[in-house]
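User: Sequence in, structure out. Go.
Assistant: Echoing your sequence, followed by the structure tokens.
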Amino acid sequence: MRKILVLAALFVTSAMLCLTGCGSGDRQGELETIYSDTYEELQETFSDSGSKFTMVEEYVRSWAKSNDIKVLDQADSYMILKNKKTKDAKDAKSVTLHCSVDTQDMINTNHILATSLTSLLGPETHGTIKLIISDAGTNDFAGVRQIPADQLKTGNLIHLKDSEKKELKTFGSYAFDATLHKGIKREKPTHTNAYEITMNVGNYKDSFDYTNKYPDPIEVVGNYLATSKSSGYLFQLASFKSKKSDGGTPESAKAVIVIDDNNVEKMQKRFDKSFDSIKKRCEKLGIDFVYTFTETSMPKQVIDDKSSGRLISLLYTLDPGIFYQDEDTGEIISAKEFVKVSTKGDQFTLKVKGRSKTEASLTELKQALATMAGLSDVKCNVTKEYTTWSSKDDTAAYFREALGVAEDDEISTLKTSELNILAEKRPSLSCLSYGFSLAEDKDAITAITGFMSHVAGVDPE
């Protein structure tokens, strides 16, 4: 810890001398010098993997104190810094920067942190500037999930990230939430063997990540029931429910069934095959899972055969995952995923999310979902249509011109990112994602501070 404080103090002394003694004629040159010193200090301080976010916080607190930057808020997995607006920027719009710190990969994180801290100092004239630094965690977005919504009151939020080449995203995806529902009837069980099928995949997994497609517990348990039903095995469904996981792949799913005496062994063997398949899949992904087929207490009632048959068939037919993919490029255009299932009371409910890179494909996806639900005599209501996140038109236009990126070259994405989480907290938030390599850091500072000047009503030279 002493090394962190000493290095930060040495850096800050040289930086402040530059800011106070170099004059105001070459602000960009001053910032580039500060960036170089900051990056060098970060590389020396965090030179390997295995750092802790608390160590990063300690360095940043010392840096902020010496640069007259206020630490506005802080928690276990994030901290927020604020640079107040300059006196000559009365009507300037605020700008918030965000960067995630991957403490297991500081070598590639340091340049983003150095760029973010340097940009926080701003051009000569600027509005209020905030910098949110969050712990990337284990791809579960734990840091940004902790950030209070009232800290996101800003004119524009710019997410900075490491990228092999320059990457601008001003839009996430078109999306909808849908609820499929139908009343169900119950009756007394006629079979005698009660079993519980449970699957759990633990913490948050992005259900729209098709590079690492994680098993969906609702889909796995539903497919097991569907294939057993199609094979003619006799069983009755008593209940089916899931536990969601912060908007990602459902954390777990559980079904209780009552099996005919002559079919218990057959369903056990089918489960064993299903288990082996899931085991191979999870081992390849490097994730833990629990998948069990165990005896349980006899339920007082089960869902009638007609209703349960339709529900099981619907779960199988809906087939969550990719809906439309470009045959030539392999680009995934649209997809749908399960969110939650329940048979509580006298109602079957299935919640589904859909995302698409185009409005046309999203419309097709909604129509297909409604059609499949209708075939099972299930109602489908789209409860919400939205974009996962997006930037204001003028902000997007500024960065396209500043970075030399054509609108057609921008990359939209179905994957969940920090911006999805932040936009959920504050739906009116205007945000964009800017990725760049170490070699492009100084260009990034020029673009970011140029935008700060722009929204302050000053044209950068």
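User: And one key feature?
Assistant: Residues 174-386 form one domain.
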